[in-house]
Fold this sequence. Notes:
The chain is built from eight helices and two strands; from the N terminus they run ββαααααααα. By secondary structure, it is mostly helical. It has a two-stranded antiparallel ribbon with strand order 1-2. The longest helix is centred in the last third of the chain and has 22 residues, at 147-168. It is extended. The chain starts with a strand and ends with a helix. The relative contact order is 0.06.
Amino acid sequence: MFWLGLDLQWAYADLLPGIYRQTRCTHLAQDILHDAFVRFAFIRDRQKIDQPHAYLRTVVRNVLTDKYREMSRFMPLPADPNEQDEILLTEEQTTPSPEKLAEIQQRLQALQNIIDCLPPRCREVFWLYRIDGLTQAEVSTRLNISLNMVERHIMRALVDLRAARDLMI
């Protein structure tokens, strides 16, 4: 059975067990494979891909990396809810390393520079929406501009931030 040039039987019989060996969780392995399928489906120039199975393996590797990075930010909770009171975190578990702090500081400074370069109204809309947590309708009312303009300002800011992020990577 083929879908967008991919042999789905190959994906589930060969690729999925490999993902499982890395994650040791059936559900997580299936989620990663399905996320890779979604990313593959949204590729604009799929005709330029000579080897779709090799490309899918690369996409799976990238999704795995993203999942591991996401999971590294969280601390597992105990299985027994009564044990939560007994969790004692050491200073090493709660304090980032000096290198990590320097990296965070550099990224925040870069983001602040990008936000500062936005036009004043765009910067104000972005700040109210993303930082202060107002809805788009609330921002529209507060600044007395149309909802459409709020959406445009937010999209402009996000596009600029994404372009800057791509340059940082």
